[in-house]
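Milestone 3.1: sequence recovery, worked example.
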């Protein structure tokens, strides 16, 4: 499957959806951390599956991820990826306790990261639901600590036999004067992507 045929108007609408999602996620994330957070959309594009890993830098570095499975009118995966340093910072920010080893996290500390992914992911998806009048639910967040390449390949591998491209909403997070090295990806299934574009096309008429 080649890159989907997308009009300029459809791409602009996707960027509007991303911006509204980021604004909604900003508010939710700021309430969670009790400090102002800025979530910045850095890219909305169709990316070959083989290039997705490049979007988080070094594919061989260990990262922390929270994965949300999307169901309903839009199916696929929403993936939150943090550097090790940023994951530790978030845990310490919420729990007020130091973190030594991410591979030996307590259930409570894992829950903090899972809830972070759930809060931001749900806020972002709620904006898509409201904007396009679709129904989307998510599974419980899943914590993963692994190499960046392994995590993102797992998120897209089920669609590899039927598609070559994913729709990528890429974000960066900034909290006060601290840059949180985190990325949020929405990876809809090929069928959901077609439905999403049809919804946008219908909205334009």
């Amino acid at each position: 499957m080649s890159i989907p045929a997308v009009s300029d108007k459809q791409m602009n609408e996707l960027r509007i959806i991303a911006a509204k999602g980021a604004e909604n996620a900003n508010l939710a994330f700021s309430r969670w951390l009790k400090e102002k957070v800025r979530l910045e959309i850095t890219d909305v594009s169709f990316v070959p599956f083989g290039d997705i890993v490049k979007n988080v830098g070094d594919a061989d570095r260990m990262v922390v991820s929270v994965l949300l499975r999307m169901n309903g009118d839009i199916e696929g995966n929403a993936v939150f990826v943090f550097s090790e340093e940023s994951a530790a910072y978030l845990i310490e920010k919420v729990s007020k306790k130091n973190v030594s080893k991410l591979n030996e996290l307590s259930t409570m500390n894992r829950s903090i990261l899972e809830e972070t992914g759930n809060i931001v992911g749900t806020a972002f998806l709620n904006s898509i639901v409201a904007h396009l009048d679709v129904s989307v639910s998510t599974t419980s967040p899943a914590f993963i600590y692994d190499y960046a390449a392994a995590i993102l390949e797992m998120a897209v591998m089920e669609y590899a036999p039927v598609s070559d491209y994913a729709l990528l909403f890429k974000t960066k997070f900034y909290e006060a004067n601290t840059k949180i090295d985190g990325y949020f990806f929405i990876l809809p299934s090929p069928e959901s992507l077609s439905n999403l574009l049809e919804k946008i096309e219908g909205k334009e008429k």
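The radius of gyration is 16 Å. Strands lie at 37-48, 62-72, 76-83, 136-138, 142-147, 165-175, 178-180, 182-188.
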